[in-house]
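In response to reviewer comment 3 from the previous cycle, which asked for concrete evidence that the modeling workflow produces usable outputs, we include below a single protein chain processed end to end. The sequence was submitted unchanged, and the resulting structure tokens are shown without manual editing.
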Amino acid sequence: MSLLNKINTDNLPKHLAIIMDGNGRWAKQKGMLRVFGHENGTKSVRTTVEICARLGIENLTLYAFSTENWNRPKLEVETLMKLLISSLKKELETFTKNNIRLNSIGNLDMLPKGVQKELLSVIEKTKNNNRMTLTLALSYGSREEILNAVKKISDKVKNNIISTDSIDESIFNNHLYTHDLPDVDLVIRTSGEHRISNFLLWQIAYAEFYFTDVLWPDFSEDNLYEAIISYQKRERRFGKTSEQIK
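The workflow returned the following structure tokens.
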């Protein structure tokens, strides 16, 4: 039986988030510059996006570039930004064909103007697609996101728009970048690292985690199926007991 046939399409994560790690190490192992790893990583992105849409996963969030990544060598950052522009242009056809809406979260003002322009263009052109929402986390850091939410809420309290007594999880969630997305059900991280790296800290409160040693450029269709099958074998209790769930 193929791995695809083992997947229960009635029990898919509504929101899958992936930390795409290992591009640099993949290139280094092959004696190439890190940029070659990033370029090959885009192939895994396309494969993963198309499979998720085909399976029926409603929301896919990819950790594409963190706030900390700005500290990488200037040449690598510049190359990543150029690669992002070219990828957006190439993948518009993929998004249109698969009825995928593009979304983005993060401190987008930090992105080069050319990246912002292309990103907003593709977001606008796909805004009416409704099969799946693909969210790119760009110049994203969860701590910064949470701090920004606190500042926005504080301003509203200061200006008597809301009261402190009315602040609850719902109000806080509405001030996050992800206010129109559901909480994450499954987080996948490639390359063998076992950490969150400042990614969606609020949104993954009850997420399941799947770590694999596979480097991102080698992440295949079967690797994705394996992660989903692992997720479907778990009992998600959300603080309750097994007896209550049953």
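The radius of gyration is 19 Å. We consider this sufficient to address the reviewer's concern, and the full set will be provided in the supplementary archive.
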